[in-house]
Amino acid sequence: RALTYAVAAGVKHVDFHPGKERDGVAQYIKENPGSRNKLFLNTKIRKAPPGTSPSEAAERTRNQIDEDLAALGVSSVDMLMLRDSPDCEVIQAQWAVLEEALAQNRCRSIGVINFCEKAL
Fold it and tell me: Which residues of the chain form beta strands (DSSP E)?
C-alpha cells in the first residue's frame, strides 16, 4: 500500500530489501500492469553470514538475484547494490556475480552500500 501512495505522489525510485519489502513491490507491479517501466527498481544483496566461503557467497548471490527477479516478475532491475562484509574475498566473489548480472542484462547498474571508504 505504501508504494501505491508513493507512486501517486510522484516517487519513481523504489529501494527495497529482499523479503517482505520486495514482495510488496512485486505485488504492486502485478496489480499495476505497465508500472515496471515507470519505476527505478533498486535492491540489495544480503550480507553473507560470517564464515561463508567466497564460492558459497557467490552462489548465494546468484540465487538471490534469481529469486528477486522471479518474485518481482521482471527480467531485470535497475540497480543491484552490494552490502559491506568484513571478508574481502567474499566481497570480491559477490561483486563478480554482480558484474555477471550486469553483463547478462539482469540489471542496468551495480553499486555498493554501507561501505567505509577504507574498505573500498
Answer: 13-16, 40-45, 77-83, 107-113
In 3D space, the residue among 71, 73, 72, 80 whose CA is nearest the CA of residue 104 turns out to be: 80
Concatenated DSSP letters of 36-50: GGG-EEEEEEPPPPT
Cell of 17: 530489501
**Percentage of residues of the chain with pLDDT beyond 90:** 82
Q: How far is CA 59 from the centre of its chain?
A: 15
Read off the C-alpha cell for 77.
Answer: 532491475
- Give the pLDDT confidence score for residue 33 in this predicted structure: 87
**Residue 72: per-residue pLDDT:** 95
Nearest C-alpha neighbor of 62 from the set 109, 98, 110: 98
Looking at every residue in the chain, the average pLDDT score rounds to: 93
